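User: I've been trying to design a sequence by hand for this structure and keep getting stuck. Would you show me what you'd pick, starting by listing the structure so we're on the same page?

Assistant: Good idea, let's start from the same input. This is the structure you sent:
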């Protein structure tokens, strides 16, 4: 059979792999293990996006490379299948989310399989399968028993469009992460996870991880650790104490007023009758704003005087207490001491409302025009005068501590995780509310608590989940006293299922435990995790939190879940617009000389690189690419587009180029004359260099340069009149992780044994890594006069001697006297010469 029908070869080889069950991982790894994990997809109705296979192909390359290097590999795939789209579709059409989800999973699976990825499909998981979410619920019960899940009625982020509460991590710029709607604050009874108990562990754990620096930084900032102090202020004429958190106790002498958050409970006690109306009005206005808007440095400052005064403990001065929304209730104590001379927000506020500004850190610029936030000598500060910031912080904390006026304090920005959703399509929370016993966890032997069938999927909008309408399900008996009780009707957020799925893959059919401890010990942790950077503080923080809890419970034996993490860049695409700004799809366009013309009118269209979207008519459909070019061209092009982490546009010319390379490879493999070798030294050296380069590039996610190196090798060996068996097989092996179908096909057609992926990765022969001679240029007065061959390790003297020996060089030096010789080892010799006197 001649090799030209790539889609047909894909199918044939995929069937062969499946029959041979090539990618099933052993129950227990025996030797070296490699656990390679892809972020599992949400099976959306739109099908696979070309961005999905980018990460999947990278992991597949790694996995095939590791298999060929003798590792026991775990490489699973599954479905993160709870979530709003299926539920919203159900609301609109009445089709049960389970049905939509199963349909979408089938389509995703077909598409992913058609790319030929080396997954162990016997380990497939689906977060909406009761056999799976039984263990999600089990983990919730452990969190509850450890006091890490609690109920509270708190103002939370509420999306009026999605009709559900959201976690802080799901709110961007005050808008809903899913639908873009403005977030409101709404007080709702909630299940909340005490992730803040793990703030320090989650922070410290980051130091040991091989993760992108930007993602580590995002997690560190999100956890937001600040070292500082709490300071207690007496309120003039009240018994109450107002405690503030400050990172700058050194500036206490410069505190000229105080600010409490509009939500601070002390407000209603201290506000004077004259100020009451103004303060209440201000509170109502602040309730409408998101934390992010309120914290914005550049925002015009607003605020109201409460009428009350506090006493600065360090100098007994009476200072006014204000309320302003730039102080957030959720951080520190919800109250601050304001030091306008040295804090930008306090400065803007003081200027606006004419409050005192007292300089306490000396600086050249002074504080006439703006706050000074740098280091300097303390002034106007009693016993601190003459010290510098660091030293005076410690001195002030000592002074306060000795007098019971304050103490050292560490604060974290991290907030507890609002874990309840008022929706249908999620894991039911395994809790019963009993009028006598209160909140009662479901006994573990009653898990899974399955989702009941409902008639309507519509959330009530009052903050109650659709589950609350299913009376037969809601009404139950209390597991504790046996009396009538009601089930919790909130469900878990979509993040729950993805918090621990990587553990389930290790032991997916275990019905006694979420994972067998021995297996977990052997397969864990994930050696390489690949997925999008958009999960930096959501999934990647939540999963670490659950993992740390499971570690403390002894369920897992490794402290961190994901040792190495890499993010793929976004795949963009060219979009084309006409003069009127309307988008046109590729099928409406003629491409000529690198330009785009509208078929109907001939108008030239202007290209732009944008995110793929239906509205821009620039969505690339993987199915079409696969049926036209085959899986290998698709995979290889995605890896060749540019650096793995970079955003880059899909370009049809690019895939054409890769496709041509694969066709040339196929044709050459049919005509090549093989012999027992060896090949010419030059080719042997190139082969060895390529083995080293491709291996190193794969390990370091430089797939694009690995492919270039393979092309260079191909160009060399495909020109030889005959090629050694070893070089031929080596080339197939090196190419295999990138183009598994074609390489297996050629392997089979040549009658080689078994599969490429079961063969051993080629070894570098270190004696054949160095070219023994290199070509160098010889210049005379800046002009290249000859190119000569010198030993690769030639000394400067040797190079100069050989250069002088060149006949061409001697001719150009006739009548000249050499004034200077410049030798660049391995590259060139340059003579500077002047006429002889
Ligand atoms: C006095 C002071 C003087 C401050 C100075 C800063 C500079 P980070 O680093 O983010 O932890 N702060 C404390 N609680 C706050 C709240 N709930 N809402 C808004 N601001 C709050 O910032 C800590 C600083 O932010 C604290 O130190 C406090 O202002 C303010 F020259 O206290 B500082
Ligand atoms: Zn929304
Ligand atoms: Zn009870």
């Amino acid at each position: 059979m001649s090799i030209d029908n790539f889609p047909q070869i894909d199918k044939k080889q995929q069937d062969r792999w499946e029959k041979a069950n090539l990618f099933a991982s052993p129950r227990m790894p025996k030797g070296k293990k490699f656990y390679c994990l892809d972020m599992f997809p949400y099976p959306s109705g739109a099908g696979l996006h070309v961005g999905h296979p980018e990460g999947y192909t990278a992991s597949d390359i790694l996995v095939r490379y590791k298999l060929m290097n003798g590792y026991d590999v775990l490489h699973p795939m599954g479905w993160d299948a709870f979530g709003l789209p299926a539920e919203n579709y159900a609301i609109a059409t009445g089709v049960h989310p389970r049905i939509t989800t199963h349909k979408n999973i089938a389509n995703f699976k077909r598409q992913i399989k058609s790319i030929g990825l080396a997954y162990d499909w016997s380990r497939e998981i689906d977060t909406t399968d009761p056999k799976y979410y039984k263990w999600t619920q089990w983990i919730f019960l452990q969190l509850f028993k450890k006091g890490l899940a609690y109920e509270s009625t708190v103002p939370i982020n509420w999306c009026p469009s999605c009709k559900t509460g959201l976690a802080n991590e799901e709110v961007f710029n005050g808008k809903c992460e899913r639908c873009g709607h403005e977030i409101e604050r709404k007080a709702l009874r909630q299940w909340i996870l005490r992730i803040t108990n793990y703030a320090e562990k989650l922070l410290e754990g980051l130091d040991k991880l091989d993760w992108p620096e930007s993602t580590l930084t995002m997690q560190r900032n999100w956890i937001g650790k600040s070292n500082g102090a709490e300071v207690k202020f007496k309120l003039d004429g009240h018994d109450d104490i107002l405690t503030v958190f400050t990172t700058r106790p050194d500036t206490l002498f410069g505190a000229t007023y105080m600010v409490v958050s509009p939500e601070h409970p002390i407000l209603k006690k201290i506000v004077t009758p004259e100020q009451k109306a103004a303060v209440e009005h201000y509170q109502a206005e602040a309730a409408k704003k998101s934390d992010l808007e309120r914290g914005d440095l550049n925002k015009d400052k607003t605020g109201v005087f409460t009428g009350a005064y506090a006493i600065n403990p360090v100098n007994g001065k009476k200072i006014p207490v204000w309320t302003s929304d730039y102080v957030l209730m959720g951080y520190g104590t919800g109250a601050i001491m304001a030091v306008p001379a040295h804090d930008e927000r306090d400065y803007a506020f003081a200027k606006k409302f004419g409050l005192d500004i007292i300089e306490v850190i000396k600086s050249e610029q002074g504080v006439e025009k703006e706050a000074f936030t740098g280091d300097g000598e303390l002034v106007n500060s009693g016993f601190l005068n003459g010290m510098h910031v660091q030293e005076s912080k410690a001195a002030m904390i000592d002074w306060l501590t000795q007098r019971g006026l304050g103490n050292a304090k560490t604060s974290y920005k991290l907030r507890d995780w609002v874990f309840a959703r008022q929706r249908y399509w999620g894991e039911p929370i395994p809790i019963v509310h009993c009028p006598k016993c209160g909140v009662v966890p479901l006994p573990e032997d009653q898990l899974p608590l399955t989702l009941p069938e409902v008639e309507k999927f519509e959330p009530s909008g009052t903050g109650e989940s659709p589950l609350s309408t299913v009376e037969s399900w809601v009404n139950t008996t209390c597991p504790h006293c046996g009396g009538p009780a009601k089930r919790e009707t909130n469900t878990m957020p979509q993040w729950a299922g993805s918090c621990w799925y990587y553990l389930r893959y290790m032991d997916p059919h275990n019905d006694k435990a979420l994972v067998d401890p021995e297996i977990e010990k052997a397969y864990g942790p994930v050696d390489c995790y690949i997925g999008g950077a958009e999960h930096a503080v959501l999934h990647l923080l939540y999963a670490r939190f659950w993992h740390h809890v499971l570690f403390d419970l002894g369920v897992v034996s490794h402290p961190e879940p994901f040792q190495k993490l890499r993010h793929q860049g976004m795949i963009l695409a060219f979009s084309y617009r006409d003069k009127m700004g309307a988008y046109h799809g590729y099928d409406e366009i003629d491409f000529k000389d690198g330009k785009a013309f509208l078929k109907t009118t001939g108008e030239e269209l202007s290209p732009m690189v944008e995110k793929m979207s239906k509205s821009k008519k620039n969505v690339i459909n993987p199915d079409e690419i696969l049926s036209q070019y085959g899986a290998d061209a698709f995979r290889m092009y995605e890896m060749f587009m540019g650096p793995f982490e970079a955003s880059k546009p899909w370009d049809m010319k690019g895939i054409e180029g890769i496709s041509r390379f694969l066709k040339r490879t196929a044709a050459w493999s049919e005509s090549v004359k093989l012999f027992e070798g060896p090949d010419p030294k030059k080719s042997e050296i190139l082969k060895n260099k390529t083995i080293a380069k491709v291996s190193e590039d794969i390990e370091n996610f430089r797939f694009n340069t690995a492919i270039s190196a393979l092309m260079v090798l191909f160009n060399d060996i495909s020109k030889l009149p005959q090629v050694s068996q070893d070089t031929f097989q080596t080339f197939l092996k090196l190419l295999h992780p990138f183009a598994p179908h074609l390489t297996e096909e050629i392997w089979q057609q040549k009658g080689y044994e078994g599969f490429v992926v079961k063969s051993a990765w080629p070894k570098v022969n270190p004696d054949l890594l160095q070219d023994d001679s290199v070509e160098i240029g010889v210049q005379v007065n800046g002009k290249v006069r000859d190119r000569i061959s010198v030993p690769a390790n030639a000394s400067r003297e040797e190079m100069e001697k050989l250069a002088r020996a060149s006949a061409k060089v001697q001719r150009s030096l006739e009548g000249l006297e050499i004034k200077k010789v410049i030798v660049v080892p391995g590259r060139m010799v340059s003579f500077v010469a002047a006429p002889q006197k």
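That's my pick for every position. To get oriented when you compare it with your attempt: DSSP finds 26 helices and 35 strands in the chain. Residues 42 and 520 are 25 Å apart (CA to CA).
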